[in-house]
Write a structure and sequence with these properties.
Helix content is 40%, strand content 22%. It has 14 helices and 15 strands. The strands form three sheets. Strands 7-8-6-5-4-3-2-1-9 form a nine-stranded mixed β-sheet, with helices on both faces. A hairpin with a 3-residue loop joins strand 10 and strand 11. Helix 6 packs parallel to helix 8, helix 11 runs antiparallel to helix 14 and helix 12 packs antiparallel against helix 13. The longest helix is centred in the last third of the chain and has 16 residues.
């Protein structure tokens, strides 16, 4: 099983918290689509023995592209790769791009899953984040989208500086009122060199509280599980049959190809990434050159990645897999490093699977870093 991720590096405006690669200038939009298609052709031999199970349009804001561009890229994949009979094809979309005719057009296309960046149903939250849509558009787009798509995910952000638990529960319950089967929810993170970082540094916005974020993450779990949602990854909740196949592949260590500026790829042993510059990317691809760098992962690198991704999921970390893929040395090390977390009831071992407990779930990333195999260079 393998997947293709296509990065659309354009946005109408910059969200204050975002550190993904994008441009607010649309002048090279058509040229970029042609370059993305060209990269797909240039790299087809990399996956000639793979079956493509997922196609994911991320960004940036893929929903700003005309449908013809999306269909051209999908057609290019079908013409150059072995695609499964029923691949998951996801389009990330912003509420301000969604209206009835757009939904109808997407519904008639090969797109079968929407990931909608709502973030919040409150106007003050959206203004603080500098989102391009408003609260009315957030609700209206879901009313339209759910009439034609069964497989819809929405994004919500918790731990906002002006937030409280009552507002957060309203956000969750508003999302649930649309009967969506998947929800991705992330704590507001202050990334370096973002507008949010500057606003906090100069005192314009209060720094998000870790305590509030932890409380709201637990509220999310307590609210969603009784509604039939499964917390299959730390930030992702899906009903049975609606887990994101694309994201699950990442966490399970499957191969994926990243197309477009800043996109990352993984072939099982090597990780590569394209240059995060639209003009340099276009120049290289137009000369049939790949503007990318790569690194070959060491055994320690692959072990550490498995620990990080495994602990974030319901599938946990298999002790047998540690032995079979990395060797007894790594299993002995892991058992030694987990001892204090087992005693503190942050981790548990069940049927040979290492998992976080309810108490340890929100601390997963910190716990994982404690278990990393560190080699001195």
């Amino acid at each position: 099983m393998a997947g293709i991720y296509i990065h659309i590096p354009f946005c109408k405006q910059a969200c204050h918290y975002c550190n993904f690669h994008f441009s607010t200038s649309m002048k090279n939009k058509e040229a970029m689509v042609m370059a993305l298609a060209n990269e797909l052709v240039l790299r087809k031999t990399e996956f000639e023995s793979e079956i493509i199970e997922t196609i994911y349009f991320g960004g940036g804001t893929p929903s700003i592209l005309p449908l013809e561009s999306i269909q051209h890229l999908i057609a290019t994949i079908y013409a150059n790769y072995n695609v499964s009979k029923n691949p998951e094809i996801t389009l990330e979309a912003n509420p301000d791009d969604i209206h009835r005719q757009q939904i109808l057009d997407w519904h008639k296309s090969p797109i079968n899953r929407l990931s909608i960046g709502v973030q919040s149903f409150f106007e003050d939250d959206l203004k603080l984040m500098n989102r391009a849509h408003n609260a009315t558009e957030a609700k209206k787009c879901l009313t339209e989208a759910t009439q034609y798509f069964d497989n819809i995910s929405i994004d919500l952000i918790y731990g906002m500086p002006n937030s409280n638990n009552e507002k957060w529960l309203i956000n969750i319950n508003t999302a649930l009122s649309f009967n969506i089967p998947h929800l991705s929810s992330y704590a507001l993170t202050v990334e370096p060199k973002t507008a949010l970082d500057k606003l906090i540094s100069n005192g314009t916005i209060e720094k998000p509280s870790d305590e509030t974020a932890q409380e709201q993450h637990q509220l999310l779990i307590d609210t969603l599980i009784p509604k039939g949602f499964i917390p299959y990854e730390l930030s992702n909740f899906g009903k049975e049959g609606f887990f994101s196949k694309n994201n699950s592949n990442y966490w399970l260590g499957e191969k994926y190809m990243g197309i477009g500026p800043s996109a990352h790829s993984f072939d099982g042993t090597k990780r590569s990434w394209n240059i995060a510059n639209n003009n340099l990317y276009l120049k290289a691809i137009n000369q049939d050159e790949m503007p990318s760098e790569y690194e070959v992962l060491t055994t320690a690198d692959r072990y550490n990645e498995y620990i990080m991704t495994g602990l974030r999921t319901i599938w946990g970390v298999s002790l047998d897999r540690i032995t079979n893929k990395f060797g007894e040395k790594y299993l002995t090390y892991l058992i030694q490093m987990t001892e204090k977390h087992l005693q503190n009831k942050l981790l548990i071992v069940e049927n040979g699977i290492l998992k976080t407990t309810d108490k340890g779930r929100f601390l997963t990333d910190g716990i994982a870093s404690d278990l990393f195999f560190v080699t001195l260079k």
